[in-house]
Write a structure and sequence with these properties.
By secondary structure, the chain is α/β, with parallel strands linked by helices. It has three domains: 83 residues, Arc Repressor Mutant, subunit A (Orthogonal Bundle); 104 residues, Periplasmic binding protein-like II (D-Maltodextrin-Binding Protein, domain 2, 3-Layer(aba) Sandwich); 98 residues, D-Maltodextrin-Binding Protein, domain 2 (3-Layer(aba) Sandwich), CATH 3.40.190.10. It contains nine helices and 14 strands. Strand 1 and strand 2 form a beta hairpin. It is elongated.
């Protein structure tokens, strides 16, 4: 069998941890995938995968070989991209993920810009309010809001957001403006569970951080609903600054408790590090980074 084909099959099985899932991903039959892995292990004279009826795991040799295989396949993509570059623009498909509301507000315009520039490209977007593992879910680019754990991913800083408490001017005129977090007990609270699953809001005074428990009159499952309730004058809600920036700019919402805000939270664009990233992904990242860094909302 072609050695590069064997590498592709092995990497797919290693990432999916399943022969059946790898077969679906590669559009091959499960027996063909099994034959490819058997052939590769026979060629190398070493066991790469431990297989049972319930799971597939890599051996120590498999882990080392997977990293080398990924690098080789990425360099092949680089060579293809370089050759295609002689004739012009990038071709192919990339997949991106971002938080749901951030994706709609900021990433979709970047995707549209990218697709208009490069008509031979296609993009799929996964917008979810949870952390998505790029490798496990086969994604090329991710946008993260928050501090990053140690990772092999390349992270490019593009801006910041803040946690803010806000309400409509009509509500504040009727109920008054809270002067400290302790005053929240006297107000109607709208909580978005995706932002505040423990119904605790974090504040800071100087270098000291504190959590304040709140008792919501309304708890909703997404940020859009919390924003709508605040716009309708129900009460105070706590969200990220970018989520309400447009409404604050138009005067529909007013931010309170400025002096008690916690430090800004960074935003990063993530992609696979170094030479493992293809030219088409680099092109997309360049477009997205430029757009996000130029957006005053994210400063």
């Amino acid at each position: 069998m072609d050695r590069f084909h064997l590498l592709s099959v092995f990497v797919a099985v290693a990432e999916e941890e399943s022969f059946a899932s790898a077969a679906r991903k590669l559009r091959m039959s499960p027996p063909a995938v099994t034959r490819a892995i058997t052939s590769l292990e026979h060629r190398l004279g070493v066991k790469l995968l431990t297989r049972t009826t319930r799971f597939v795991r890599m051996t120590d040799a498999g882990h080392r070989y997977r990293d080398s295989a990924r690098r080789i396949l990425a360099e092949m993509d680089e060579a293809d991209d370089a050759a295609a570059g002689v004739h012009g623009e990038p071709r192919g498909h990339i997949a991106v993920t971002a938080p749901a509301l951030f994706g709609r507000m900021f990433v979709v315009p970047g995707i549209v810009d990218y697709l208009k520039r490069f008509p031979a490209m296609s993009v799929s977007a996964l917008f979810l309010d949870r952390v998505v593992n790029l490798v496990e879910e086969g994604l090329d680019v991710g946008i993260r809001i928050g501090e990053l754990p140690d990772s092999t991913m390349q992270a490019i800083g593009v801006g910041y957001v803040r946690r803010v408490v806000c309400a409509s001017p009509a509500y504040l005129a009727d109920k008054g403006i809270p002067q400290s977090p302790r005053a929240l007990s006297e107000h109607t609270i709208v909580a978005a569970s995706s932002m505040s699953p423990t119904v605790e809001w974090r504040f800071a005074s100087g270098s000291k951080a504190t959590n304040v428990k709140v008792t919501p009159r309304l708890t909703v499952t997404n940020n859009d609903a919390a924003i709508e309730a605040a716009l309708q004058g129900l009460g105070l809600t706590c969200l990220l600054s970018y989520q309400v920036a447009q409404h604050v700019a138009t005067g529909q919402l007013q931010v309170v408790l400025h002096d008690y805000e916690t430090p800004r939270v960074p935003i990063h664009v993530l992609h696979h590090e170094g030479r493992q990233v293809s030219a088409k992904v680099r092109t997309f990242v360049d477009v997205l980074v430029q757009r996000l860094r130029s957006d005053k909302t994210l400063r």
